[in-house]
Amino acid sequence: MRRALEIGTFTGFSALCIARGLAPGGQLTCCDISDEWTSIGRKYWEKAGVSDQIELRIGPAIETLRSLPAEPTYDLAFIDADKPTYPAYWEEVVSRVRSGGVILVDNVFYHGAVVDQSDDGEGVRAIRAMNDRARADDRVEATMLTISDGILLARKK
Hints:
Elements: E1 3-7, H1 13-20, E2 27-32, H2 35-48, E3 54-58, H3 61-67, E4 74-79, H4 86-94, E5 97-106, H5 122-136, E6 140-145, E7 151-156
Parallel strand pairs: 1-2, 1-4, 2-3, 4-5
Antiparallel strand pairs: 5-7, 6-7
Helix pairs in contact: 1-2, 3-4
């Protein structure tokens, strides 16, 4: 894996894991809105020797994604950010992942709320929409892993 994209970095743990899995010369682009929280991760990226492989872009992730080249150049994308924007992130990410690349989406069970029809909160509605969109998206083959709070795993055709 040479190029990866992360939407939602928080304290940088998943970025560290992804960066450590990159091929020599590989690059991870991280999108997050918080300089404060990502500063925690930057210290550990430096200690792990991967900071030169991580480009952190601070700002609204949807804007960052839309500023990236539209060509499918990423091998991996990981979405784990603000849940109401998941469907929009999905649309921006799928076109930027190469054929055979992988898209991971975290928290797709939303603590079980996605199957609770009485729960109509904004985040729940967004995750349901995201799950429905991924299932119907003929650009990918997708499945859900029942690990923790659910991970959607999609391979781009």
